[in-house]
C-alpha cells in the first residue's frame, strides 16, 4: 500500500460527492433492481443477484470512503467496481436496451461511456489510492 496522501479540500469534496453518488446508486440498485437487471449482459448469470450484490458493494464502498482505515481499500474497490460494470454500459448502449419502455439514444450513452474512466479515477483519487495528476513528480503515489 502506498503512503497516504494529504487530503486537500478538493479530495475531501470529491470524496463526499462519491459517497453521495455511490450511496444513492446502491439504494437504487436495492430498491429497483428490475431496472438494472435489464442492462446486465446476457452472459452474466443470475442478473437479479448481481444487481443486488452491486447495490451492496456500492453502499459498502460509500461507507468505506468515510472510514479512514478503510478509505484506501474502498477507493480501490469502487475503482475496480466501476471498471467491472463498464461492460453493462456498453451492452445497454449497443443492444438498445429499453428501460421502462424507453430506449435512450447516444446523447445519453456517449457521455456515459466516455465518463466511466473519470468515475474510475474519481474513486481512486477520493480513496487516496492515487494523487495523479495533482502530485508533484517527486511525491506521486501509484502514478
Question: What features would you highlight for this structure?
Answer:
67% helix, two-stranded antiparallel ribbon, 143 residues, 2 strands, mainly alpha
Give an overview of the whole structure.
There is one protein chain. With 143 residues, this protein is an all-alpha fold. It has one domain (9-139). It has five helices and two strands; from the N terminus they run H-H-H-H-E-E-H. The protein has helices at 9-31, 33-37, 47-66, 68-94, 106-126, and strands spanning 98-99, 102-103. The chain has a two-stranded antiparallel ribbon. Strand 1 and strand 2 form a beta hairpin. The longest helix is centred in the middle third of the chain and has 27 residues, at 68-94. It is globular, with a radius of gyration of 16 Å. The model has no long low-confidence stretch (mean pLDDT 91).
Query: Largest beta sheet: what is the strand line-up?
Result: 1-2
Query: Mean pLDDT, rounded to whole units?
Result: 91
Largest sheet: 2 strands, antiparallel
Uncertain residue ranges:
none
* SSE class: mainly alpha
Secondary structure: number of strands = 2
Q: Determine the number of helices (DSSP H or I, runs of at least 4 residues).
A: 5
Beta-strand fraction estimate: under 5%
Distance between the termini: 13 Å
Question: Over all CA atoms, what is the radius of gyration?
Answer: 16 Å
Number of domains: 1
Order of helices and strands: HHHHEEH
Determine the fraction of residues in helical runs and give it as a percent range.
55-70%
Shape: globular
Amino acid at each position: 500500500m502506498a503512503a497516504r496522501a494529504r487530503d486537500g479540500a478538493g479530495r475531501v469534496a470529491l470524496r463526499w460527492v462519491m459517497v453521495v453518488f455511490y450511496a444513492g446508486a446502491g439504494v437504487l440498485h436495492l430498491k429497483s433492481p428490475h431496472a438494472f437487471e435489464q442492462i446486465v449482459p446476457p452472459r452474466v448469470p443470475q442478473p437479479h443477484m448481481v444487481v443486488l450484490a452491486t447495490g451492496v458493494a456500492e453502499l459498502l464502498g460509500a461507507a468505506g470512503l468515510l472510514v479512514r482505515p478503510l478509505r484506501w481499500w474502498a477507493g480501490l474497490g469502487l475503482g475496480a467496481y466501476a471498471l467491472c460494470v463498464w461492460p453493462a454500459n456498453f451492452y445497454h448502449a449497443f443492444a438498445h436496451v429499453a428501460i421502462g419502455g424507453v430506449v435512450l439514444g447516444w446523447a445519453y450513452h456517449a457521455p456515459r461511456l466516455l465518463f466511466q474512466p473519470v468515475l474510475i479515477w474519481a474513486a481512486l483519487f477520493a480513496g487516496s489510492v492515487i494523487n495523479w495528476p495533482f502530485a508533484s513528480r517527486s511525491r506521486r503515489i501509484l502514478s
